[in-house]
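Residues determine shape. We examine one folded chain.
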Amino acid sequence: MDDRQTLLKQLPAVDRLLNEPALSSLAGRVPRVLLVEAAQEAVESLRRTILAVSGTVPDLSPTAVAADAARLATAKAASSLRPVINATGTLLHTNLGRAPLSTAALDAVSESARSYCNLEFDLSSAERGHRYSHVEELLCRLSGAEAAAVVNNNAGAVLLALAALARRAAEQYPQASAGWAIATLPLGRARTGPAPGAWTRLFPALWRTNRFPETE
């Protein structure tokens, strides 16, 4: 019989591996589905090694294979997110998770998220409320705006600004509406008019004329 066939028969069964201390000790911390998956992958990796390599024989003992499976299971269960140092020079870096939350903000999120809350429920009227009501007054006070809305990213804010200002432009300044450049400001405020060079590159389709209405 081929030596490789002999080695393949020595591969431990997945059930046997799950009962090894290296894997059974993880049962309370790692979901069983991941333990089974890791055991299967460890056995399959050894099977490929046996079929592809001649010479050195890997350790096929249940203890050794279970230890390999335990390392795989631990890696699968671990979070893929890691703390990093932002040395890019950009404080609000999308690829690095934007701005870190302060302790007070984290405490507020934890307090609200650990149970049900009145996100869209008006306690005074016992009717459905509006989720923006919790932040609109504060944002208006900070920005001086007449109204405020919260969206989940800058693209959403730009789209809303474009939709609102383009409609106004088409009504009041039809000769210049195609050439407006729009720049979003912090807290959702917007202004119209000639924008810096970076904005002309972002919105080349809008940059067609030098005629812009005066706005405050």
Notes: The CA atoms of residues 84 and 97 lie 10 Å apart. Residues 154-202 form one domain.
